[in-house]
Amino acid sequence: MHKRSFLRTAIALGLLGASGLTMAQDNVFKIGLILPMTGQQATTGRQIEAAARLWMAQNGDTIAGKKVQLILKDDTSVPDVTRRLAQELVVNEKVNVLAGFGITPSALAVAPIATQSKTPLVVMAAATSSITEASPYVVRTSFTLPQAAVAMADWAPKNGIKNVVTLVTDYGPGLDAERFFKSRFEFNGGKVPEALRVPLRNPDFAPFLQKVRDLKPDALFVFVPSGAGAAVMKQFGERGMDKAGIRLIGTGDVTDDDQLNDMGDVALGVVTSHHYSAYHPSAANKKFVADFQKANKGMRPNFMAVGGYDGMRVIYEALKKTGGKGGGDALLAAMKGQIFESPRGPVFIDAQTRDVVHNIYLRKVEKKDGQLHNVEFDVIKDVKDPGKTK
Ligand code: VNL
């Protein structure tokens, strides 16, 4: 008989007293995974869910004698919905961990709940620098925009790019990307004559790209969230910007592995800076990509998948270390300082900032075995978030 149906039968027969029921509850470890499964950010939800399930398939669902239960909720990337779902998960489901968070406003909406309930909040996607400062219970396994943007601002001026227009999505991560790219690029002697911002919801890139065409900079630096890159690339090509001699550079969000292979030749040669490429040549990554594709009808994992996969590892290791005892504070303490090899390369969860420290790679889009890939050609090792004030 299944454990669940045994439990149900036992309850019906009155075989279990209150203590029996509590024990059954105590032996479950609940992860409340809140993701955008529908709407504009649905690709992020799909990638992270697939990665979390892959992690559990590879590592089992019984850890330190506890049954790990993943409770998936779709917040449609509307922060008010994220907040309500998190509240329900904490109060009704009594989850041990909150995880996921596709966009910055969703992560920020939940931070006060994590603080009040002392529930670790594992950010697997959102990447604005300040998120880790919104609650002492936040731990991040995604990345930060300043990490990626500064690397590009150092690379570009050494490679003939002196004059850059920036184009970012107008909210937390875009503003971080713009600010950190611009200040470092100018420090390096570059010029940024225009900083353009497009709205998060239903962006139309056409008028902005027309403006860039008229300004004719050496390059256009782009940040758009995962899932929006293909539209930018398409319009960039349609307007003949590449033929007009304007290069496209950016953080790796724009050449997202989820969409890259369908972007066509306009993407060839685009240089970006990021922490993960599905083409990263390590044994650990080759296995991750193969297993992920096998379990998901050939879908290529992107940087969101890796944030989800590593987030599950951080949760599992903390559960192993604490045996599930001591509640949220013990769990949080066991998450701090973890060091491991991720599919992206070496990862360290900084105990002071609770933020991820990892390599940032410079990559160029090339065709390999008939497919478009972000091929890494340089690396800056162990990059801490430059956005931290302390
Ligand atoms: C965020 C940052 C979202 C980078 C993204 O894709 C991204 C965010 C949804 O912090 O909201 O690629």
Automatic annotation (TrEMBL):
Homology family: Belongs to the leucine-binding protein family.
Protein's UniProt keywords contain Translocase: no
Keywords recorded for this protein, A-Z: Signal
Tree of life domain: Bacteria
Signal peptide: 1-24
Species of origin: Ramlibacter montanisoli
Sequence ranges assigned to domain Leucine-binding protein in this UniProt record: 30-368
A Pfam family of this chain: Peripla_BP_6
Gene3D superfamilies: 3.40.50.2300
Name by which UniProt lists this protein: ABC transporter substrate-binding protein
Lineage: Bacteria, Pseudomonadati, Pseudomonadota, Betaproteobacteria, Burkholderiales
